[in-house]
Amino acid sequence: MSLQISSLATTKKAFKESWLALKNNRVIFIPFLIFAIVDLISLFVLFLAPRMPLRLALGPIIRTIWNETFLHYPANFILLQKLSFLSRLALSVLIGSLLTGMAVSIIQSTFYKRPVELKKSFVSALKIYFSLFLVTLIVTGLFYFTGKAMSFVLAKYFSRHARLLFIGARVWFGPISMALNFLVALFIQSCFVYAIPVLIIEKMKFKKAIARSFVLLKKLFIPTILLIGLPMLLYIPIIVMEYNTVFLIEKFIPEIILVILMIGIIINSLVIDPLITAATTLLYLKKKEEGQL
Amino acid sequence: MKKTLLLLLALVFITGCADDQYAIERRYWFLKKQAEKILNNPEASPPRELETIVANHYRFIKKYPNNILSLRANFDIASLYTVKKEFEKAREHLNAMRPQYGTNPAISADITTAIGSTYEIEEKWPQALEQYNKVIKEYPLTPTGFSMPVYIAKYYERTYQPDRAIAVYHQAIGHYQGLIDKHPGTPVALNAGLMIADCYGSLADWSNAAKTLEGILNDYKDKVNLDALMMNTALLYLGQLKDEFRAKELLQTLIKDYPKSRYSGTAKAILKKLSKPQE
Q1: Is the Cβ pair A44, B12 closer than 8 Å?
Q2: Which of A48, A76, A77 is best to mutate for the B interface (most B CBs within 10 A)?
Q3: What does the alpha-carbon distance between residue B87 and residue B80 come to, in Å, rounded to a whole number?
Q4: Is the pLDDT of residue B13 over 60?
Q5: Would you tell me the crossing angle of helices A129-158 and A118-127 to the nearest 10 degrees?
Q6: Are A129 and A51 in contact (CB under 8 A)?
Q7: How far is residue A88's CA from residue A232's CA, in Å, rounded to a whole number?
Q8: Residue A72 touches partner B, C-beta closer than 8 Å
Q9: Closest Cα to residue B7, out of A205, A41, A172, A35?
């Protein structure tokens, strides 16, 4: 009981400190803002894919992998959601890894009340780009392939059965898949969340940083899960809307999907990611200062 | 960075304002949404609404006369008049389409069928039948003309006239047999054969249906993919004719000739079930 109370207190404190850090040091937002801009540009490019001149370059790819249908209005909005998801995964690995490293470096400077030098933070992240890239690649890859595996297993099961645990396929592929994906994302991110702070702050090697992240998760399990899970809850309305693309297109206008995806990018990049990164990095630094690690 | 953003904005502006096929599809989608308001609830919509929506359709057709979506918009206008029970206007509009689309047999068949439908909805079956027979006679190889004999038979089934339905199914069999004789060994003959089997199925004449399907399997072996047809024929033997032996033979051939077919798994499962001793 006392362990739970202290865990909750730690979480509350970490959130409060990260909120204050973000409020008083707007500079922390810069890496996240850069990522949001890149993500939005990529979304616009994908949105314009069925139209000239982008159709010349992206049309054949979409036609080959998916279908000609998705190059026409309004079916392109159904694919846009998937394309945006895939582009975000790629951008997270290629650019997001570097920018998260940069953000951790900035948070470290603010924590020690040192002047923030954006260039210096960027360079310190760039120096270990390969390790940052690998950590993000593992997290993204695990998330993507677990999701795929779950869909495959469900599809295989429901090709022969009508129900699983008294529940039909529609519910399993809808809200239950959504909840499972959320829990999987939460667990995977929790496992690796300290790897980037360890790489940046301790300058450890890649494998050691991963191992350290696992150890830290074990030590700080409840606070870590809460620090990641609570901000992630903010994204649930977007997920729900994304699961109802066809309904939204029919009920309103197809362009609503673009608006939802834009809001999703803003919430994800400018609210959830900064909160998680700041809260977990500050918790790590705090525990380190207190000699509890 | 500034230059890149400006370039991107220019790109968005250029593509966003372009009157390309995508932009036309977008306009048509909004037009279709307007039409759906009336099509989904014709009684509730005021006459003024019909006029406005039809006028919007005409504007679209005038702006993109050669676009495929203009053809759809034309048929939408006819549908709008039909659901509002303005049958004469619908037929007038459909006939007005002929000068532009008359050279295309498939579209001409659809126009004539649509005129027939207006009569059918108006409960003027003899006039509708006249149009439908015109489609069969003048455009027999178009998708609509090809399936029209069965459509007529199904009309009689729907309206509880079994004797007429049976007679029309027999007429249809004769019609399709004529097409086979006229176009032997072609896709037309293959599809006509399938239609004959379908007609026999509707007449519950399972042995003739099976005989027709066996004929197709024999005639088109090594020419087209017959896995689906083999599966259907096996199921016909199993379900209707209770001929387990022939069904097993067909399923075994399916597995042997089309090992990668999506039906081979089902065929194996059925064979496994059939090999189990009956309880």
Answers
A1: yes
A2: A48
A3: 10
A4: no
A5: 70
A6: no
A7: 16
A8: yes
A9: A41
Say what the alpha-carbon torsion angle B16, B18, B24, B25 is, to the nearest 10 degrees. Answer: -40
Torsion angle (degrees, nearest 10) of CA B152, B153, B159, B161: 130
Alpha helices for chain A (secondary structure H): 2-24, 29-47, 54-65, 75-91, 97-111, 118-127, 129-158, 169-171, 177-192, 195-197, 206-219, 221-233, 236-243, 245-251, 256-267, 273-289
Q: For residue A193, which amino acid is it?
A: V
- If you count them, how many residues does chain A have? 293
* A interface test, pick of B1, B12, B17, B22 with most A CB neighbours within 10 Å: B22
Rounded to an integer, what distance in angstroms lies between the CA atom of residue A250 and that of residue B147? 32
Distance CA B190, CA B167 (A): 23
CB A293 within 8 A of CB A198: no
CA distance A52 to chain B (A): 6
ipTM of the complex: 0.76
Give B11 to chain A, closest Cα distance, Å: 9
State the residue for tokens 């869909």.
A151
- Say what the pTM is: 0.79
Inform me whether the C-beta atom of residue B12 falls under 8 Å from chain A C-beta atoms: yes
- Looking at the complex, does the CB of residue B26 fall below 8 Å from at least one CB of chain A? yes
Summarised one tens digit per residue, pLDDT across range B106-147 is 999 999 999 999 999 999 999 999 999 999 999 999 999 999
CA nearest B220: which of B246, B190, B242, B198?
Answer: B190
